[in-house]
Every structure is written in structure tokens, then in C-alpha cells.
Write a structure and sequence with these properties.
The chain is mainly alpha-helical. It has one domain. It is built from 17 helices and 4 strands.
């Protein structure tokens, strides 16, 4: 039962109005050869809006804020992806958006009960290891993609929510310290550090260096939550050692990085516009051409550049829709990530889980946007909920469901075991009397 039906109805109308405004913009300013293409796009977007409004009524939650914002950003991405180079309904991206909404429901159901998920933490660790083995066996030599016909899967994406859960489910162990030499050691912290290091080394081995900062950010968020945990009492010595390890690892990583990575670190994109600086130079030109309000949906040039729909999607949107739309898109994603953190967390587990997801989304989006704008080396990382890619969309949807779980958690008191009285106790009392 909806506690506030007027707020629910207002949110429904707001999302419909936002998508309707974008569709009207395409009608007047977009590039399309046949009006049928726009009608199909409008029917798909508005139909998904209305269908999800009805489906949400069957889920009992404290709030539906994230659900509405998720639907808002996903259908925005459908409209964006359907307009690059001309209006044509992107059915593939539409299907991945539906998959993301479905994954959101599963993410909510699996992580809302902190007592249950705490008992599954060893399976979370095992899941990360299994994904690594799958990548080694099925992707081929130093690759990160599994190709199945015309589809491709990136299993490393699914390690992100697992690492978030690994960080969140071991928080309560901070009070279980063991004295080793002169250090107070929590064994789960060592295990978690080893898991994170293995994931980062594995990403390096698979030549997916752009994802390493995202995994590192998830671990860093969990680490700082450990410092703040009651009675954790981290010493300054431990913090200094941890900071030194990270600094040394970063320096060594740059030293042993492949040559193509070093070229990206120090390339001058304007003097190498046809080489390593091609994508970034074209991305910057597209942002400048689009201005604040864009050239019009479907009227851009960047769709001719490789990875316009994924790695440099921020520039593609800025060119056709304008920098104003691109910034609004960015703010919606930040609100999705930060909204559970605005209210006091309902448990330390939920707070840690939200912080890890917020760190992942923020870092991932920053790498894409700043890389496209030549503010940092180009990494090729996708923007959550916006970039084309099924693995990324499903993973982002699942993590959004984890945020929903933080706003609508399940707390169940452990059942008290009933003491069984002997069957002949009453007979004994009578005989004693």
C-alpha cells in the first residue's frame, strides 16, 4: 500500500513530463527521415514508464525515490542512444535497460536483509574467484570479453557489486582483533585487502586498467568506514602503512604499465590528432560545437567516431543535446548514488554498502567525463546507466537495487528457540503431590 499516493502520482507525472519534453524536442529539432521512427521511440519510452509504475505497486518499500530516478535516467539513455546520427529506435539498448530494471529488483531482494547477506559473505568471496576463473577459461589470452554469437559479456563488471558486498559484510569483524607482533590484526581485513589486490592485478593482466580506479575506490570507501566503525581504533601507524602501500603500488603500476598506456598518459592530443589523441580531440570539438543547447538530436558528427555510444558518450550527448542536458544527466546519476546517504543509514552494513556504490558510480563517471574532456588520460570507462553495454547496464541496475535495499531494509529479529518440556512433566508433578 502506497503511504502517500499523491507523491507517487506526482513522481509518475514528473518522469512522464521529462521524457515527453525530450520527445517533443526531437519532433521539432531532431533529424529523422520517417515520423514512424519517432512514434516507435515514443511508444517504447512512455510504455516502459507506465508499465514500471504499475509493477512498482507490487513491491512494498519505504520510498520509491531511487526507482523513479532510475527509470528517469534509463529512458533518457534510450532516447540519447536512439538519436546518435539520426533518429532510429535502439532496440538493443532498450532491452538492456529493461534488464537493468529487472536486475534492480533482484539487487533489492538479495541485499535488504543484512543478517542473511552477512551469512553469505564467504560465497561472495568465492563468487569473485569464480568470475576470475571464468574470465581465464573463456575469454582467451589476456582479454576481458566473452563472445557468444553476436553478444559479448564482460564478467569483470559483475565483480563490482560483489566487492561492495565483501566490504560491507565484514564490517562487524572490526572488534575481533588479534595481536600479531606489535600490530592489532583483523583477519578479514587482510582477506579483503588480498581480494582487492587480486582483482586489480587481474584487471591489469586483462589489459583493463581503466577499471582499476573503480575497484580501488570501492575498497577505499570500505576501508574508511572501518576506521569510523565503533571500537575499531585504527592506529596512526596502520594508516601510514596503508597509505604508503597505495603510493608504492601506484608508482610501480605506472612504471610497469604497457607502452600504449604510457602514451595515453603523456600524449598531446592536438599534435597527435590522427593517433592516440584522435578520440579525445574529436570529443572536445564535439562539446564545443554543441554549446549549451546542442546542434539537435541526430545532427551531430561524433557518431562517426569509434565508441561514441560508450567511451565518449558524454561528448556525443553534449554535441547533439547540449552541455546543459549532459550536466542534468550527470546530476541525476549523482542523486541516485547519494540519495540513500542523505538520510541517516538504517544500519552500518547499509551505510557501507551505499558508500561503496556511490564511490564506484562517481569514479566511473568521472573517468569517462574527464577523460573525454582531456583533463585526465583517456581510460575507456563507461558512464553508468548511459553508455551502451549490456554487462555494465545490468551491473549498474543491480547496484541501484542495493541502494533501494538501503532505503527499504528488512530487519528480522532472530527467532527464539522454544524450550521443549518433557512430555511426562505434568505426571511427575502429580505424583510428587
Amino acid at each position: 500500500m502506497i503511504k502517500n499516493p499523491f507523491a507517487y502520482l506526482f513522481s509518475c507525472l514528473f518522469v512522464l513530463a521529462a521524457h515527453g519534453t525530450m520527445l517533443i524536442n526531437i519532433f521539432y529539432n531532431g533529424k529523422y527521415d520517417d515520423i514512424k521512427d519517432l512514434i516507435i521511440l515514443a511508444a517504447a519510452v512512455l510504455g516502459l514508464d507506465i508499465s514500471y509504475y504499475i509493477i512498482m505497486l507490487f513491491f512494498k518499500q519505504y520510498t520509491y525515490t531511487i526507482d523513479f530516478m532510475l527509470l528517469l535516467i534509463l529512458n533518457m539513455s534510450v532516447i540519447f542512444q536512439s538519436c546518435f546520427g539520426g533518429v532510429s529506435f535502439s532496440a538493443k539498448h532498450y532491452i538492456t535497460c529493461i534488464a537493468a530494471l529487472t536486475a534492480c529488483r533482484f539487487g533489492h531482494m538479495l541485499t535488504c536483509n543484512h543478517n542473511w547477506i552477512q551469512q553469505q559473505k564467504k560465497y561472495v568471496w568465492i563468487g569473485i574467484g569464480v568470475l576470475m576463473i571464468i574470465i581465464l577459461i573463456f575469454t582467451g589470452s589476456r582479454s576481458m570479453w566473452i563472445n557468444i554469437g553476436s553478444f559479448s559479456i564482460q564478467p569483470s563488471e559483475f565483480m563490482k557489486p560483489l566487492l561492495v558486498l565483501a566490504c560491507a559484510t565484514s564490517i562487524t569483524e572490526q572488534q575481533k582483533k588479534h595481536k600479531v607482533w606489535k600490530f592489532d590484526i583483523v583477519w578479514e581485513n587482510i582477506i579483503l585487502f588480498g581480494i582487492t589486490a587480486a582483482v586489480c592485478l587481474f584487471q591489469w593482466w586483462c589489459r583493463d586498467l581503466g577499471s582499476i580506479p573503480t575497484f580501488a575506490a570501492i575498497y577505499a570507501a570500505g576501508f574508511f568506514l572501518r576506521i569510523c566503525y565503533p571500537k575499531a581504533k585504527f592506529s596512526n601507524k596502520t594508516l601510514i602503512i596503508a597509505g604508503s602501500v597505495v603510493l608504492v603500488a601506484a608508482i610501480v603500476g605506472i612504471k610497469i604499465a604497457p607502452e600504449y598506456v604510457k602514451d595515453r598518459l603523456f600524449v598531446d592530443i592536438w599534435s597527435d590528432k590522427d593517433g592516440n589523441g584522435y578520440q579525445q580531440s574529436q570529443a572536445l570539438i564535439a562539446i564545443a560545437d554543441g554549446g549549451w543547447f546542442g546542434k539537435g538530436p541526430g545532427k551531430g558528427y561524433l557518431h562517426n567516431v569509434f565508441a561514441h555510444e560508450s567511451d565518449i558518450v558524454f561528448s556525443s550527448i553534449s554535441e547533439e543535446w547540449g552541455l546543459l542536458y549532459a550536466i542534468m544527466m550527470t546530476l541525476v546519476i549523482l542523486l541516485i548514488a547519494a540519495s540513500p546517504l542523505i538520510n541517516p543509514p538504517r544500519s552500518y552494513y547499509h551505510g557501507t554498502m551505499c558508500t561503496g556504490i556511490c564511490a564506484a558510480f562517481t569514479v566511473q563517471m568521472a573517468l569517462n567525463i574527464f577523460g573525454s574532456c582531456n583533463m585526465i588520460p583517456f581510460t575507456g570507462v563507461t558512464i553508468p546507466f548511459i553508455s551502451m553495454g549490456g554487462s555494465s547496464m545490468v551491473t549498474s541496475g543491480f547496484m541501484a537495487g542495493m541502494l533501494v535495499a538501503a532505503q527499504s531494509p528488512v530487519f528480522r529479529k532472530p527467532k527464539k528457540k522454544k524450550s521443549k518440556k518433557p512430555a511426562n512433566s505434568s505426571a511427575r508433578r502429580r505424583s510428587a503431590a
